[in-house]
Amino acid sequence: MAIEKSLVGCLGILSDVDIERCISEGSLRIVPFESSCLNGAGYDLRLEDKLEIQPKHHKLVATLERVELSENLAGTLHIRSSLARAGVIASLALVDPGFRGQLTILLYNAGSGRFEMDSNQRFLQIAIHQVSTQTLRPYRGKYQDSQGIVDRRPESP
Questions:
Q1: Global pTM?
Q2: CA distance 155 to 152
Q3: Mean pLDDT of the 107-125 span
């Protein structure tokens, strides 16, 4: 199915200018916001707590920032290349329109040495996308308003 030409312009990743506009308009919140974490095509999220992962082990971590997306924005997460170069792999997902909360990420140390990071260090980037139309099914799931590290929650019956 072809995308209408009128929609093509709104399907890309938002630039730093667009991200700042969305924040000022209230359709995007990143708290606490640090301007040095904003880059040309996304925002670098920081680690909430100090991290240590032994080789061949994994750990759940939380972002310092709380992210709130309006119903016409979505986010994709990317591990920073400096972590990947150290052998750290992340389990990442789409951040759905309407999501509010801190993000919990699984990091796996595939390297041969212990991996350490201090709190408040940048470890993840979120790229913000404008969806083609406002969604009819914004996120209302079990991780809404997450705080800190959130373990897997069982499915509702």
A1: 0.86
A2: 9
A3: 97
